[in-house]
Recover the amino acids of this structure.
């Protein structure tokens, strides 16, 4: 029993069909509990008022926006090294989800920034790097859709993902260098004393779990769709030959 | 006994020598093609020139504003004019089949990429660097910035050419890859742009600039050292 068993599309389809309802259920529970708790049962911040509650969407979405790219990096590497199609398709499936999380983080940030910072947008390092991340997602998805042959597309997008990761990291440090930030620092770190108060922290952690599970659900669903589309293509090709 | 069929001449030239000779030949060929009528040499320069003329027309003639935005405009102009000629880098050779020959040539594909990127730099990056001080006059760049303008472009434009070669390698199989190429390459240009413009900005304000200068050089050297491998891998995929 090894993880590589799931590289077999059939095995992956079986297991994911079994797992999907559970993951979906857990996602809904976490999101409903976390968001209700966060929105309705936490006190207002004494400076930020009720606008602080956007944290329950903004922070998890921003975390997943980055983690989704990380997952694409890992699955791309697996495709390059071990040539498992499921892996390449999972990377393809994750990109639009990651892009959506990035856009959610940017939009919720702007909505919060308008009353709090007095501006929708500032060229703050974090905001700028998210904008750059959006561009990387767009490029990656555009390359997938531009190439017809699926294996060529998988190879080229994987190479782009590897190189892009390096440059995305470089850009992150470049923008840090370039402008001092308006955005608050990390306040959820496990190794720091000064964190956000427990009243906000517990529902936030539940929301983060919910977003992780939401990402997992979407990627599983989309990967299954991609596998089915691939099978359909193969069937049609076989029919044409026969 | 030496194996039959190996001529004396081939024995004399080691593989390194063949590679070096091949790269030189390829470089000269690419330079000739670029200089020839219709080769696109000077197009990037003309674009760079136009941009430097249009920006003051749009922004207004006020010297202080121009001086402040000059480093950024010159760098953005440089990377846009680099972008202009990128889609020809491999596409023309792919169309007429010479890329297949280059891929099977006795020099490694990585060396082909390096030679082509070097040719691209010699016909775009280097002339841009040499022309930039004249255009900086239009943009009212402070006196102290001129040296650093040349230094930062000289250090940074090789990165632009190599990163561009990588993007061109990714899109070489596509019929209309030009627009996609800019979408892929421009985000990769971000760190180079930031550090490059920062060097000029600090230089013109007489501030300490060792850090951005070192980082710019690091990006350039790193890109020149590593990206040809990625580009060659992409070309191999595209030629499959």
């Amino acid at each position: 029993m090894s993880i590589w068993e799931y590289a077999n599309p059939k095995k992956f389809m079986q297991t994911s069909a079994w797992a999907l309802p559970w993951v979906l259920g857990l996602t809904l529970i976490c999101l409903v509990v976390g968001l209700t708790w966060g929105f309705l049962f936490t006190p207002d911040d004494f400076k930020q008022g009720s606008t602080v509650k956007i944290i329950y969407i903004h922070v998890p979405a921003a975390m997943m926006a980055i983690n989704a790219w990380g997952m694409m990096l890992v699955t791309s590497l697996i495709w390059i090294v071990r040539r498992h199609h499921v892996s390449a398709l999972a990377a393809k499936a994750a990109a639009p989800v990651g892009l959506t999380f990035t856009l959610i983080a940017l939009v919720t940030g702007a909505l919060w920034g308008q009353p709090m910072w007095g501006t929708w947008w500032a060229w703050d390092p974090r905001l700028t790097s998210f904008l750059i991340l959006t561009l990387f997602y767009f490029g990656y998805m555009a390359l997938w859709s531009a190439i017809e042959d699926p294996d060529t597309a998988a190879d080229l997008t994987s190479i782009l993902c590897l190189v892009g990761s390096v440059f995305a990291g470089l850009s992150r440090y470049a923008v840090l260098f370039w402008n001092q930030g308006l955005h608050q620092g990390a306040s959820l770190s496990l190794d720091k004393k000064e964190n956000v108060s427990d009243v906000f922290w517990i529902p936030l952690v539940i929301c983060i779990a919910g977003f992780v599970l939401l990402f997992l659900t979407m990627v599983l669903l989309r990967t299954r769709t991609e596998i089915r589309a691939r099978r359909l293509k193969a069937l049609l090709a076989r029919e044409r030959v026969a | 006994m030496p194996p039959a069929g190996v001529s004396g001449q081939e024995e004399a030239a080691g593989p390194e020598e063949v590679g070096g000779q091949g790269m030189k030949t390829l470089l000269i060929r690419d330079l000739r093609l670029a200089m020839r009528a219709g080769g696109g040499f000077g197009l990037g320069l003309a674009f760079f020139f136009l941009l430097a003329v249009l920006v003051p027309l749009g922004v207004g003639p006020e010297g202080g504003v121009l001086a402040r935005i000059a480093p950024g405009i010159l760098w953005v102009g440089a990377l846009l004019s680099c972008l202009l000629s990128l889609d020809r880098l491999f596409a023309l050779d792919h169309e007429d089949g010479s890329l297949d020959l280059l891929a099977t040539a006795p020099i490694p594909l990585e060396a082909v990429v390096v030679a082509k990127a070097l040719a691209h730099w010699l016909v775009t990056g280097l002339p841009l660097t040499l022309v930039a001080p004249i255009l900086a006059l239009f943009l009212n760049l402070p006196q102290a910035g001129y040296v650093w303008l040349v230094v930062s472009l000289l250090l940074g434009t090789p990165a632009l050419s190599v990163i561009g070669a990588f993007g061109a390698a990714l899109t070489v199989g596509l019929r209309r890859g030009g627009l996609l190429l800019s979408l892929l390459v421009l985000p990769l240009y971000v760190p180079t742009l930031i550090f490059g413009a920062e060097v000029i900005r600090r230089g013109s304000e007489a501030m300490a600039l060792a850090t951005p200068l070192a980082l710019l050089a690091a990006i350039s050297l790193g890109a020149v050292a590593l990206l040809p491998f990625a580009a060659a891998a992409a070309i191999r995929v595209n030629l499959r």
